[in-house]
Design goal:
9 helices; 16% strand; elongated; 11 strands; 3-stranded antiparallel β-sheet; alpha+beta
């Protein structure tokens, strides 16, 4: 039945009657207002037979497609077509895309089935299988002990191995290593990672002394904490990989900060004094070692020189002895001449001709002075010159 039939009015209500109470038809008033002026207009009803004809045609086509011959029931082909289209749409709903930074976890009726890598993937449509994507390359960070000026003492205050208290703030960077374990093992990953990090850091700090934590031992503490955290998370089957543990600040408690600074300053002064003492010790020891080595080398050189000179003297004596055995007279004369040559080479000589000498000869004092003196300023006064007496020595003799 058409929607604009008077018996079944459309959404705009029933049309107004065209006659008055006496049965006389009255002309229909325009929709614009009482006098045909430009007053406010109400909603317009669709007019024209074309729209009615289009709706009627569509209804006939639907009845012809779904209805059987002679209007008896619904055609099986129509049911099959609708069912096929619905099944196709349901089957295509299982296609999904996994990004390069993600890992997909597929569950079958809520139970873990498999994990998929990046690319275009397919799973059986819901409610048979469902998929959940987890970012596995994203780095997550948790700050423990407070951020900035907002300090959390119940997290940052820790007891060291030497029974001191340190105010330590640190951060943990982690990522998902196994998406299936990450989804099905941990209820709240951030809370679990924070608890494991705080527990591991307290254990490592409890086995360490305060001074290395405040100065040069932070790297060792960070490495040990990361290793212990990873072991704890692996024992839980959390599927999380600890990337880095970084100590942001390590200070003594505020109540004793001044005393710790004084102790640190005294320790630096002690270290400086120790370094100065070590420097002086090394210098003195090295100088003593150098002097000792010099003395040893000098002694070894003197020993070698003495041995070689003695060896040469022995060899020379043996040669002279062999020559003396062959010719004793010639050898004696030669030894005498060489000895006198060696003695007289460093002394002053005066040659006097004895012919016609009858008076004493007076020699100047400088003749008897040595040619060289190791200490000229300490030379003794010259001795008086002896008088020459007759008879004079033969000509050619030397004194």
């Amino acid at each position: 039945m058409p929607w604009n039939d008077n018996a079944n009015p459309g959404p705009w209500g029933s049309p107004p009657p065209n006659n008055d109470g006496n049965g006389d038809k009255k002309p229909r008033r325009p929709l614009g207002g009482g006098n045909g002026g430009g007053g406010p207009r109400g909603p317009r009803r669709p007019e024209g037979p074309e729209l009615n004809a289009a709706f009627e045609k569509l209804q006939r086509q639907m009845r012809d497609f779904f209805g059987g011959p002679g209007g008896e029931g619904v055609r099986p082909a129509a049911i099959a077509a609708v069912a096929g289209v619905g099944f196709g749409l349901w089957a295509l709903s299982g296609v999904y895309i996994v990004q390069p930074n993600e890992q997909a976890v597929v569950t079958t009726f809520g139970a873990y089935s498999r994990s998929e890598g990046s690319g275009i993937r397919y799973h059986l449509p819901a409610p048979i299988e469902r998929v959940e994507k987890v970012p596995v390359t994203t780095l997550n960070r948790i700050d423990i002990g407070g951020v900035g000026d907002a300090d959390v003492p119940e997290e940052s205050l820790m007891l060291t191995g030497d029974e001191n208290i340190v105010d330590l703030d640190f951060s943990v960077t982690w990522r998902v290593a196994d998406a299936s374990k990450y989804l099905f093992t941990l209820r709240d990953p951030d809370v679990s990672v924070k608890a494991a990090a705080e527990s591991a850091m307290r254990e490592v700090v409890g086995n360490s002394e305060l001074q290395p934590i405040l100065t040069t031992g932070r790297g060792k503490v960070q490495a040990q904490t990361a290793e212990l955290m990873q072991k704890t998370l692996d024992s839980w089957g959390a599927g999380i990989s600890v990337v880095e543990v970084q100590i942001r600040s390590a200070n003594p408690p505020q109540e004793v900060a001044d005393a710790f600074r004084d102790v640190a300053s005294a320790g630096q002064d002690q270290e400086s004094a120790r370094n100065d003492a070590n420097t002086y010790r090394n210098r003195v020891v090295n100088e003593a070692k150098g002097d000792a080595a010099k003395l040893i080398q000098s002694a070894e050189g003197y020993r070698e020189q003495s041995v070689r000179e003695a060896t040469g003297d022995v060899a020379r004596f043996n040669q002279i002895y062999n020559e003396y055995r062959r010719a004793p007279g010639v050898t004696k004369e030669r030894l005498y001449i060489e000895t006198m040559q060696r003695v007289l080479a460093n002394s002053n000589k005066v040659v006097i001709d004895g012919k016609g000498a009858s008076a004493p000869i007076i020699l100047p004092p400088d003749v008897f002075r040595p040619r060289t003196s190791p200490h000229p300023q300490a030379e003794a006064a010259p001795a008086p010159a002896p008088a020459a007496t007759t008879p004079a020595p033969p000509q050619g003799a030397a004194r």
